[in-house]
Write a structure and sequence with these properties.
The chain has 274 residues and is α/β, with parallel strands linked by helices. 40% of the residues lie in helices and 18% in strands. Strands 1, 2, 3, 4, 5, 6, 7, 8 and 9 form a 9-stranded mixed β-sheet that branches.
Length: 274
């Protein structure tokens, strides 16, 4: 069955690349709302082929601007997070040059960052801010790399600066909502891991996924944290990290000791100042 799923997956990806890509390019060039939904349809289709069942616990806040901050376990996170409402991603620049995957990332309107160039970071934050102001929901993987899921790496504060850039650009906007999200996976076969980290190659990992499963993915959505002009960027980062750790602890993935959130001044929790 793995060979059959691999064939169907390849055929589906090719069909989207040959037929879907021109439609998405046209929708993007014309500014059609359809351009926001085509990537989600593609990712839901791929998840079905890989037998990944995605469930959201909670929902993204119906507000704008909204910056979504998640833990990061695998390249699969891009697909599972896209199965809900339309989202875009912050991605490393190298992804843009990957065959097929790079095209799909561009078509989903990813924001690309050159992580090895410090001078590029302010530009990226300004771009994220503009996209958030335009109504896009940007997903930020604040660990900046994938992990095996046994621990949560320290969140980096760099791109929380996009919230500051947005508030500087738009004096009429009072705050940016930051939504903490925790992604977890369970393999029903008991041994195949969805996590893709370290020096794992992508294609062998994909083959393992095709052979294993089915998989259950649960996306835990926390309460939004409101970032206003009095908010310290690093304090907001630590608070968001604590919120994601709390979601993972509640799901049984981290020890409760790692989930105690600090509540620094200037950050609104559940609509009320601490």
């Amino acid at each position: 069955m793995a060979y059959i799923r691999a064939f169907v997956l390849g055929l589906t990806a090719l069909a989207f690349y040959v037929l879907g890509s021109p439609v998405q390019w046209l929708a993007l060039s014309r500014g059609w709302p359809l351009s926001r939904w085509i990537p989600g349809f593609f990712h839901r289709t791929i998840c079905r082929i890989l037998r990944i069942n995605v469930q959201f616990v909670g929902q993204f806040a119906p507000v704008s601007p909204l910056l979504i901050v998640s833990n990061h376990l695998s390249w699969v996170d891009i697909m599972t997070l896209s199965t809900g409402e339309p989202v875009c991603f912050l991605s490393k620049r190298e992804v843009k040059s990957w065959p097929i995957f790079g095209t799909f990332a561009v078509l989903q309107r990813s924001v690309f960052v050159a992580r090895d160039r410090l001078a590029d970071l302010p530009r990226v934050n300004v771009e994220i801010a503009a996209r958030l102001l335009g109504g896009d929901r940007i997903v930020l993987f604040a660990e900046s790399t994938t992990t095996d899921g046994a621990s949560l790496l320290r969140f980096r504060a760099t791109h929380f600066g996009a919230a500051q850039a947005l508030l500087a650009q738009a004096p009429d906007v009072t705050h940016v909502a930051i939504q903490p999200v925790a992604v977890t996976y369970v393999s029903r076969d008991g041994h195949t891991e969805v996590a893709w980290y370290g020096d794992m190659d992508m294609l062998p990992h994909l083959w393992l996924l095709l052979k294993g499963g089915p998989y259950d993915c649960t996306i835990h959505v926390g309460e939004p944290i409101l970032f206003d002009r009095a908010t310290d960027r690093k304090a907001a980062t630590r608070a968001t990290e604590a919120a994601v750790a709390g979601l993972l602890a509640a799901a049984g993935r981290l020890s409760p000791a790692a989930s105690t959130p600090a509540q620094p001044a200037g950050i609104l929790f559940n609509g009320e100042k601490p």
